[in-house]
Amino acid sequence: MNLDRNQITDCNKQLMNFHQQELDIVSAKLDQQGINSEEVIADIIKLQVATPSWALGTGATRFGRFPGGGEPATLEEKISDVGILKQLSGQTSSISLHIPWDIPDNAEEVKELAASYGLTFDSMNSNTFMNDPRGANTPNGLSYKYGSMCNTQEAVREQAIQHNIDVIEYGKRLGSDSLTVWLADGSNYPGQANFRKQFENVQDSLQQIYKQMPEDWFMFTEHKPFEPNFYSTVNNDWGSNLLLAKGTGERCLCLVDLGHHLPNTNIEQVVSRVIMEKRLAGFHFNDSKYSDDDLTVGSLKPYQLFLIFNELVEYMKGDEKQDNELAWMIDASHNTKDPMEDLLQSFDAIALAYAQALIIPRTQLNELQFNNDVAGGQELIQNAYRTDVRPLIREARMRQGGAFDPLAAYRALEVRKQLIDARGTRVAVTGL
Amino acid sequence: MNLDRNQITDCNKQLMNFHQQELDIVSAKLDQQGINSEEVIADIIKLQVATPSWALGTGATRFGRFPGGGEPATLEEKISDVGILKQLSGQTSSISLHIPWDIPDNAEEVKELAASYGLTFDSMNSNTFMNDPRGANTPNGLSYKYGSMCNTQEAVREQAIQHNIDVIEYGKRLGSDSLTVWLADGSNYPGQANFRKQFENVQDSLQQIYKQMPEDWFMFTEHKPFEPNFYSTVNNDWGSNLLLAKGTGERCLCLVDLGHHLPNTNIEQVVSRVIMEKRLAGFHFNDSKYSDDDLTVGSLKPYQLFLIFNELVEYMKGDEKQDNELAWMIDASHNTKDPMEDLLQSFDAIALAYAQALIIPRTQLNELQFNNDVAGGQELIQNAYRTDVRPLIREARMRQGGAFDPLAAYRALEVRKQLIDARGTRVAVTGL
Amino acid sequence: MNLDRNQITDCNKQLMNFHQQELDIVSAKLDQQGINSEEVIADIIKLQVATPSWALGTGATRFGRFPGGGEPATLEEKISDVGILKQLSGQTSSISLHIPWDIPDNAEEVKELAASYGLTFDSMNSNTFMNDPRGANTPNGLSYKYGSMCNTQEAVREQAIQHNIDVIEYGKRLGSDSLTVWLADGSNYPGQANFRKQFENVQDSLQQIYKQMPEDWFMFTEHKPFEPNFYSTVNNDWGSNLLLAKGTGERCLCLVDLGHHLPNTNIEQVVSRVIMEKRLAGFHFNDSKYSDDDLTVGSLKPYQLFLIFNELVEYMKGDEKQDNELAWMIDASHNTKDPMEDLLQSFDAIALAYAQALIIPRTQLNELQFNNDVAGGQELIQNAYRTDVRPLIREARMRQGGAFDPLAAYRALEVRKQLIDARGTRVAVTGL
Amino acid sequence: MNLDRNQITDCNKQLMNFHQQELDIVSAKLDQQGINSEEVIADIIKLQVATPSWALGTGATRFGRFPGGGEPATLEEKISDVGILKQLSGQTSSISLHIPWDIPDNAEEVKELAASYGLTFDSMNSNTFMNDPRGANTPNGLSYKYGSMCNTQEAVREQAIQHNIDVIEYGKRLGSDSLTVWLADGSNYPGQANFRKQFENVQDSLQQIYKQMPEDWFMFTEHKPFEPNFYSTVNNDWGSNLLLAKGTGERCLCLVDLGHHLPNTNIEQVVSRVIMEKRLAGFHFNDSKYSDDDLTVGSLKPYQLFLIFNELVEYMKGDEKQDNELAWMIDASHNTKDPMEDLLQSFDAIALAYAQALIIPRTQLNELQFNNDVAGGQELIQNAYRTDVRPLIREARMRQGGAFDPLAAYRALEVRKQLIDARGTRVAVTGL
């Protein structure tokens, strides 16, 4: 489904009150601080965030699922939905697939379809946290109940390794160039497992997968402290993640999911550390208050998101670079919102935090910090945070033919209604 | 299924080395502190913990489910499983049902069946956190996606109220005398809901259900800070729970689930407060490290469990009493253990903590506390905690014809194998 | 010390670029949403936050203290400092004293001095968490080592009660009308104390103090989960606080300190609950990431602060009212910032959050919430939060003769240098 | 002061009821599991824990200090107190000093004095978290207000480096062979500091100190997530600590303080990771519920302590070894207990956890874990934890001429009274 570009333009017209005036003032004020607003707009346009295929349907908690309607049931429909998001927001130009939920039986056609929407394929996600529902079709049919790559049983580890190699193969056909490995591996009870042996098994398994990866691919490992294992996980924090990445190979990098941290963690400092070690893969964006809540980006801790982007902009505008491009992806679960609305709000929050971080005068910040001007340093970054940068983001969107306010346009154009009309109220079953 | 009592006795014989000697010493030492070990044994026998019907099958997380075999698919099989647990441990003599998972179509027969195992029916659990899978069969077929009793839509609230009244009806036929209300109601995002209006709607709904409750019934409300709602819940902590209970009626009491607290909460003090207000319903026992992990009781924080029982024993041995008997129930989820093994370990941990709390010399503790003897007070309760009270627990079990070591007997008698032989490896679907 | 009003005006002139333009646009946009910006400005001016006397000097942690210079050593100098803050920000018109740190030996003169700066006396703070340094001068000279009002020893409790009565007397002479009671009472170890007896002792002590309070006074009780006691505190959370307040009397209310909560607490919901019970005293504003960090308001979680003000505005603009005016106070500790700068930044953050909450279209929010428009409700309040309301705040300040940017003016006018010149680099010793 | 050995023996006689019987049974039962109780006793005797000099006086929180009497005011008195602890418990044979609180002006005499009590000098602790109270006497007199080794100002960093080199010099004279570096360095506010530059400055400073260390010395770096800095710390977690240690040199190792972790951290897994990387320095033992509460070891989370010792015993009884001996030290703060009583209780808890970990049948545990016997693995280690190992610990103490129950003997012999008689009720001022 493609939205009519004229309709988007019509929507924009009704909302654009004051836009030019606001854009002019914010640009003039930034100019006084030595910030070029045109460059900021260009940077906003460049930041493209991948949409994960599983985020297009209603998510679930262990306490049930409340599906909406018009959800995509096939890979083709998922691609179509991302196309809509791209048209409206101008912020997403790739899709991240999950195997076995999104096996592309006809990779060439799928790739062409995506290209017709201007979309490419982002990192491929393997799944060894559930048993493959295809059961007998899988090579060994062994269970991941007690872990996959960490398992004491060699046959289970081999099945997990082979699954990841299969995922790489799917990815190669689609033009992806990275594999994301999140493992549920760990333990539920003290006494159940040996921390070190589990770690060594995972390390060894990752090395074997790494060897099968094309030379221009990257592997992303993702840490998480708990859930679905509730006593320990193998890749539990950035320290373990960094050890695993370094132990695997040069192109093994650490992915940071914003919800995968213990209470009160200073996530922006974690980002700084991983960048310092040149091992940052990129992000799984979402927000949370208690655990891995997988809520809309920026809905609870927008200032933290800004501080994370502050670290990222320091890196992106700095001299020292990693070999990889940073990977940006949403990873949220939408239980009570229309998934497309949730994603549009998430793109919005990301653009906002990024733009706020871009307008921090870096040289001045460095000087204040060097002089131990504690109040001054805080003031400078809060001034950027408190600036209403939405005129810059809206301008970036409209220059791409997108919507002034994507969520408002999505509603005005009755996109969900159209999807329900086309697909019915059936429930897609792949994903959490 | 009934275990052969002789087989249990045979198992016991092989394990009873040193038992009498240990029992004699611990009894003699307790005697020196003025504690009568026979009374402790009698108290242990009296503490009967209800088994929830949903804990007899493998649980799930939102990341999947790894079922074992021989799980009970019908209410009759569930009752049979609790019968086995009772025989082995002597610690559980009732079952707690969950509607709509355990609708007793023929209540009289079910009641008789339970009685044949020496079992009665504990508190009835309603469910308004999922939509009834029976769909069209439900009176209104409205969705709880945005909450049940807190919902802004009156029709949804009425459906939730009616469901609870239905559950009471089922319970009356089975001889239960209480209704447990745990609500998932809350919100996922700031801005989504009005805290106060949600609270008032829940308060009003509870009052309406309360009016329909028989006069000898109790209502138990259960608080939880998050999950499946991740920004706010209506009955979020003991403070809210107490307000709701008082606002509902004299026989509305606060149920404490050990996993439903924010990080670092002093749960034993919560228990003290609720007892002080004469509103303690009882417990949902489990253990956790991060959130509502629903792990085996005592597997992670056994000292906390002991401190909670310290509060309970103070109440139970004190003069001031509530009108209700305290309700004891397990509420755990077993994803990687045989559910029956998990339950037997949980009973063990509860008996241990209770016995340790029973042997604290209360008068001496009061004196040390009155004299601000900080080290002395700690020393006294830790002395009780460090005492190996297992001889007392084993004695209590054997006097009831149970197993010296229930888990060992369960394995020696190959109970799970027998259940698989009888029921197959089919997967039960009711429960989380 | 009084700042020269012309100098402030001169400072303003240099910073006021775009001010009028920005004010016009924000006003026009608010107007479209039915919000009158003049009323918002008037509300901002009305929100006066008390400055605590102890926040005017460098704070300490248990790991030491790094004092700056020019700190106030006398009550008179503290009043003078608050006068400066008032002139610059227009946001503080009262001072909150702490006994025995600020005993006003000549209450009449002190009161007149304050009045000369346009200042009054806010809530009086008692201190039973330290032993009075005056030692022998205190009536009994008993120690609070094992608690004050919770103490098992009646003589200690009586001393604590008498101290609070003395504080009321000081307050009466100064024109204050409330007593703030924060207690460190609790325990460090399981076994040390009986939760319930401690609670009952505190309850009884508060009742005795309450009886001695003038009939137009309010008592504010303040909860805190830990520190300096690290196992339990008596007034540990809002639930306990509410019980104590209700048990004490109608004019006993619950004070909320933003740093006195367990990790992940939904503080805005706590506020809603206490308002619902008509027991909100007001706030001790600060910010924190880990525990009671006592950092500058809004420096870490500005969105949470906004959500709290969202609850407050709902109450303030609603129909149902408590008998008391809400009490607003900073309670921060400044270890590495100039205390005056820290306070100016805190006033700024408070005004910002308040203004953002004021511009939420309430009727529309209620409608979205009633219709379960989850994304819509979030969008509406985030739109308010993302609006740059600083033009309104600056306008409010300037209309009072204050500074466009108080921190910038404080620096431009070299206030700290003047204070050091006048007072030297000596170190004040009262306070934490 | 030396206690009369006969008096200790007399105390023991009154308490030894049942001791031999209990020892025989526990030994026989362990024997059945293949555990030699004599070896356990020998291991208990070998585990010697250092006493920190600052733990001998009453600690403080930022809310004040409640000193007891008879506290040691000089280094000589501190050594004497450790001598008493050694006599009673047999568990501490070294003392850990803190510079500038314990500068040994006459190192030879101090060393001899210690030797006369059978004591040596454990790791030396530097202090750059406070400004040296000697002020002008320090080489530069610069302030650590904005950090020490992380400071942007080179002169401050050099002062901190020189201080550490001075501490090494003191240590060399006393026969110590390690330097412990705990830094308060970090920041209080976002914007205040650059995470990476702070880290690099600390790394560089540590390298410079390392170069000045004798070749047989070790450097211990200690991480902590917050306090006294409340937004970020430089050495914030084990991941940062490991990077710093590896970046400094082979003999730079990671010290683990049990209170220096975010809420819910799996500390035993942290220990496993650091051992896996062969960088474990040892421990600062204490206990806590909320933050760095510095409570008596084992007073709140004894099971966690056991699980940590489980990891340690696996290492100690395993084949792969680090070059260093593990360093064991208490690091607690005693605000409401007699410090000597607190330390005796801490030694007790450490011996208990160690003995419980020693009696886990390791081969069986490995087998259960290999077979994914989740309930079995838990059962095995809980069986060890639930065993009353106190007879073994008492035997270990008595074989060294110590007390059956050190705390009881300390009280029976009225040690504190003797200390007060000798030293008065004066207050020592060094330490927190």
TrEMBL record, chains A, B, C, D:
Keywords, ordered alphabetically: Isomerase, Manganese, Metal-binding
Residue ranges the record marks as coiled coil: none
Domain Xylose isomerase-like TIM barrel: 104-293
Cited InterPro entries: L-rhamnose_isomerase (IPR050337), Xyl_isomerase-like_sf (IPR036237), Xyl_isomerase-like_TIM-brl (IPR013022)
Source superkingdom: Bacteria
Entry's Gene Ontology molecular function annotations: isomerase activity; metal ion binding
PANTHER family, per the entry: L-RHAMNOSE ISOMERASE
Protein name: Putative sugar isomerase protein
Organism field: Lentisphaera araneosa HTCC2155
Source lineage: Bacteria, Pseudomonadati, Lentisphaerota, Lentisphaeria, Lentisphaerales
